[in-house]
Specification:
heterodimer, A: alpha+beta, Immunoglobulin-like, 2 domains, six-stranded mixed beta sheet, 21% helix, globular, B: mainly beta, four-stranded antiparallel beta sheet, three-stranded antiparallel beta sheet, 0% helix
């Protein structure tokens, strides 16, 4: 089995530059053969840390609207509102929507300007399973605000 | 893959009014995590960026990931500085670009 897997991997990777191929082979075998062509996704914690860094996140001002129970994880409507005057001096720059249980932690990143008028968005997300959804807002003054909601998912929507 | 988007913009009574803009576009948003019948992963093809500009200035932008549902729906707000065209652009992983202009009237 091990031998067959090795051969298959080599076949598929024929075009990969020689040196890297050997390292990749080891990595692929280490991952019990379920590896896909996907780049490695960051974990939820890594994604969260990349945004928040060493700053202290404030747990106010961000409101997530999400159904408590999502019957179909393929399309779950949600909206995020951040309290802000949205003036030239004080506005919401970015809102990251993160999931704790999807294969890829970032769902979407919304960039606002003072011309947005209101820091509110609505969209639809995919959810693989029951999990927590976080909305992380970066304000123009550099402060970070986080909102969190738990959602139960009856049928996961990430395929595979 | 993507078709003509559907856009619904609110009406501004005066300059400075904030209106809601709702957009919907057809796209598979293939995640890259699924496998085809041959067992090989289906390559990712999603709309990765949505941008709205007015008079050449960026109003709103979204970086999408595989966690966004197929046929992405995005609704956002826009403070109308005056009459003009709101231009919206969707770009997917295959490099396909869809641009749609919506005239925004005041009054």
């Amino acid at each position: 089995m091990d031998q067959r897997l090795k051969l298959e991997v080599v076949d598929r990777r024929e075009f990969v530059v020689g040196g890297a191929a050997a390292a990749m082979l080891v990595a692929l075998l280490g991952r019990t053969g379920t590896a896909t062509a996907q780049d490695k996704q960051p974990t939820f914690d890594e994604a969260m840390k990349a945004i928040v860094g060493d700053k202290k996140a404030d747990e106010s001002q961000v409101d997530i609207k999400l159904p408590e129970i999502a019957e179909n994880g393929n399309t779950v409507p949600y909206s995020v509102t951040v309290e802000s005057p949205m003036s030239d001096d004080s506005y919401v720059k970015t809102v990251h929507v993160l999931s704790s249980g999807n294969p890829s932690p970032t769902i979407a990143t919304f960039h606002f300007t003072p011309m947005s008028g209101k820091a509110e968005i609505s969209s639809r997300m995919r959810l693989a399973k029951t999990q927590d959804i976080y909305a992380v807002a970066e304000l123009s003054d550099g402060s970070i605000h986080v909102g969190k909601r738990t959602v139960k998912v009856t049928i996961g929507g990430c395929g595979g | 893959m993507a078709s003509k988007p559907r856009i619904k913009a609110g009406k501004a009574k005066a300059a400075g009014d904030v209106i809601e803009v709702k957009t919907l576009i057809t796209h598979v948003m293939e995640t890259g995590f699924r496998k085809g019948k041959d067992g090989k992963p289906i390559p990712r093809n999603i709309i990765n960026t949505f941008t709205a500009t007015f008079g050449g200035k960026e109003v709103f932008k979204v970086d999408l990931s595989s966690g966004v549902s197929a046929n992405p729906y995005i609704a956002f707000y826009f403070k109308v500085p005056g009459p003009g065209d709101l231009e919206m652009t969707w770009v997917d992983d295959a490099g396909e670009k869809i641009v749609e202009k919506v005239p925004i009237a005041v009054g």
